[in-house]
Amino acid sequence: MTEEIRITAEPIDTQRCKFVVSVPVWAGGVRRFTGADEAKGSPLAEAIFAIPGLAVSELIVSGNIITVVKQSTAPWQAAGRAVGNAIRSTVTADVPAVTAAPKPASGEGSAVTDDALYEQVAKVFDEQVNPMVARHGGRVELIDVQDAVVMLRMGGGCQGCGMADVTLRQGIEGMLAQLVPAVRGIVDITDHTSGANPYFQAAKK
Amino acid sequence: MLPTTTYRTTAFVEAARQIGVELTVASEEPSALQATSLGGLVTLPLQDPQRAATEAFLFAKKYPVAAVVGVDDDTAIVAALIAQRLGLKGNPVHAMQAARDKHQQRELLAQAGVPIPRFMLRRLDEDPAAIARSVTFPCVVKPLRLSASRGVMRADNVQGFSNAQKRLDAIVCEPEASFLIEEFIPGYEVALEGLVVNRRLHVLAIFDKPDPLDGPFFEETIYVTPSTVPAGLQSSITDCADRAVRALGITEGPVHAELRYNENGPWLIELAARPIGGRCSAVLRFGAGGLGSGAGVTLEEIILRHALGMPIPSLQRERQAAGVMMIPIPGAGTLKDVRGIAEAKAVPLIEDVQITAHPGERLIPFPEGSRYPGFIFARGETPAVVEAALRDAHRRLEFVLV
């Protein structure tokens, strides 16, 4: 039996777009790819990095959410179709779309640094961010830190909230810049379309 | 200034990041993280523009502000007041108030000879039968300050007028409130998106609205650009909007105008000193496919660049046709599910289908409601194929309400 795959694109800005897939893509936590070399062995990542003209620079896969970062100026509305095709063809194939990252050789600094950053960011989230967003019924979950990039997921009142980007960019990003300056970026992997109880809701005009 | 109800938060926050400017977000309710971002977040009483301007003035003493941008009808007034207090580029306050108040707007437009429907101002607690004696049918009743065509109704006779007035009274729900009664202008409707720079209107796009807006309610659906209206008529439409901009005294920033035309030429129906509503601005991009710099600049980036006096790479919209459908409210009820999204996205030329209503959200049809459940975007070689794609995609969506 072939299950119908539904893919929803959620452009974040001209460079970043989240694709929410109706079936799990990768159950092994978060996997981040920063180039075609890292993508080898994961057909989904290989296919997305190989899309002509898109200049994909980063790909993050977590559960059923795929975040793509591109350098080309092509609008997501057009680029998203090619990404959707790549997702559909690899997720429905007989081999796993994503495989686990190779274990870092002992002594490699990056993983240690990310682990240390994870601890620091988790402390900021636990002690500062979450007590504050809880006032709006929200929560922010630290998913992973890879190459000093923080991956987070918003829940409760933050999920689908009309001001989620303000919380993220004007709040969390600024806090991390002050308190954990080694953090190089933040990626929100939330499926905001599924938020059933957003704190702020938009209305036209 | 981003009210918590705006659809445009992401677009403006990302536009600011794109051009590398520091952003302070002002909203009417505090952000959960406001205490942590002293210069980046501020709460202002946007419902009280004078007080908001005073508080913004004090804020700017600690955290200097280079430009102030409102994103909707209400914050345009607050932005003008703050700009005035801080000596920044901005619109005259009276111009923004006139743009916000439909009656004041019509009085100024009429004085300036801009072609508008005949209108009268009455109170909602007056006897409808008495008012109806001086009304020519068909007419349109309108609230003075609601947006997105909420509460706007056509009446064809005395009974219809009486019903519409009572219904509007219940929607506005404000003692001694006034409302507008306007002559119904038959014709084809277009929307004009523009940027006023030093009193000069630059047309960014003219949208066709191919679905007839003849009432009884005036729910927007499809916008497609470029317009297929003949060039000469487009020029008349632009001229009409330009005269309206001057009549209201708008000197800077985005404008969104709705006009009709018929055998008597163009008629100005509404002019707002803000960009296009909802998520519709995503359909516009400027400079794309051009000669390099500025490829794919968004409307929000243009607005921020203009406010800051930064160079604007291009005001020329891309060559391709583009369109957006504000998905019609499918009925009254609580949204349980939306089916067919993947099928709708798979329609050729469809670039995105964004469902903005949340599971469990109560949908309220026009004229009482005004919140569209989502948006469909398409791009293609001609306006006709774009329109067809939008309709095709919409047919594949099924809203399950309980």
Question: What layout of secondary structure does this protein have?
Answer:
The complex is a heterodimer of chains A (205) and B (402).
Chain A: E1 7-11, E2 16-21, E3 26-33, H1 36-39, H2 43-49, E4 56-63, E5 65-70, H3 76-91, H4 109-133, E6 138-146, E7 149-156, H5 164-179, E8 185-188
Helix pairs in contact in A: 2-3, 4-5
Chain B: H1 9-19, E1 25-27, E2 41-43, H2 49-62, H3 73-86, H4 93-100, H5 102-111, E3 119-123, H6 128-132, E4 139-143, E5 153-155, H7 158-172, E6 178-183, E7 188-197, E8 200-208, E9 222-225, H8 231-248, E10 253-262, E11 265-272, H9 299-308, E12 321-326, E13 333-339, H10 341-346, E14 350-355, E15 362-363, E16 374-380, H11 383-395, E17 398-401
Parallel strand pairs in B: 1-2
Antiparallel strand pairs in B: 3-6, 4-5, 4-6, 7-8, 7-10, 9-12, 10-11, 12-16, 13-15, 13-17, 14-16
Helix pairs in contact in B: 1-9, 2-3, 3-4, 4-5, 5-8
Give a short overview.
The complex is a heterodimer of chains A (205) and B (402). Chain A has 5 helices and 8 strands; from the N terminus they run βββααββααββαβ.
Description:
The complex is a heterodimer of chains A (205) and B (402). Chain A is an alpha+beta fold and 205 residues long. Helices cover 33% and strands 26% of the residues of chain A. A five-stranded antiparallel beta sheet of chain A has the order 1-2-5-4-3. In chain A, strands 6-7-8 form a three-stranded mixed beta sheet. The longest helix of chain A has 25 residues. The mean pLDDT of chain A is 86. Chain B has eleven helices and 17 strands. Among the domains of chain B are: 90 residues, no CATH class; 66 residues, Dna Ligase, domain 1; 82 residues, Phosphoribosylglycinamide synthetase, C-terminal domain (Glycinamide Ribonucleotide Synthetase, Chain A, domain 4, Alpha-Beta Complex), CATH 3.90.600.10. Chain B is α+β, with helices and mostly antiparallel strands and 402 residues long. The longest helix of chain B is centred in the middle third of the chain and has 18 residues. About 2% of the residues of chain B have low confidence.
